[in-house]
Amino acid sequence: MSRYKSTKNSSILGILGNIFLLIIKSIIGFISGSRSMIADAFNSAGDIFSSLMTFIGNKIANKPSDKDHNLGHGKAEYIYSLLISISMILMSIYVFKDSFLVIINKTKYSYSIWLIIVCAITILVKLFLFLYTNKVYKRYNNLLVKANSKDHFNDMIITSLNLISCILARFNIFYLDGVVGIIISLWIIYTSIKIFIESYDVLMDKAASIDTQKKVLEIIKKYDEIKKVNHFNSTPVGYKYQITLTIFVDGNLSTFESHEIADRLEDEIIDTIDEIYLAVIHVNPIEKETK
Hints:
Blueprint: H1 3-32, H2 35-61, H3 76-105, H4 113-140, H5 143-169, H6 175-203, H7 210-221, E1 226-237, E2 240-250, H8 255-272, E3 276-286
Parallel strand pairs: 2-3
Antiparallel strand pairs: 1-2
Helix pairs in contact: 1-2, 1-4, 2-3, 2-5, 2-6, 3-6, 4-5, 5-6
């Protein structure tokens, strides 16, 4: 299955799964008055938006290059990841405020076995979604899917805390309801900021990692004809990088011979290093060393 189809399927599953969870959490949360369950319902609403952004961003990012977008539309993936992170931060601020007021006002809610059942269902659904999206992310290194995968994993932790809160409510211990709501909001803010920074770095054309640069230089070292390398630059193109560099070869080589070396090097870099989308290599002559 292609990168596009796998990402599309993961976003559709996320939308359907979270719509189901939003409905059952909202019903039970508002009937019982549990702030942690209501917070969890808001979290599911945010997840629906995240999955929708993944679907739209993935569709735009996979459009082919055109005369107005010579390097394609890959950065759409990171623009939508940025939107996802911002929406998650805003939602978590609301949850934090509401949960804090629950603790201050010592608000109680009605215990129901359905709170336990909803938590158990949520954990199972999120476990499935996490395993699926994490597999897609590891295979295609898609930041949109990574954001959703982390979100599903976080939801399992959040709902597990919610489950503990619901169990304690059975014994008339209600204060943890607000505490869990605050923990939920702080966790969401933390993960959202990480996704925001990753997206921002790509949109601001952060250079390829040191590891990727080392891979390129290791390949260059195999070419005895190349005497020197400089002007190594890289820029993100979607989830991959375009690199440009200048190599220096013996000035006595013909134009054809020197450019043949550059062509072979470009092909090897692209074929060998998955992170590289395009390699553009300039050739400069260097005087042949004399003994």
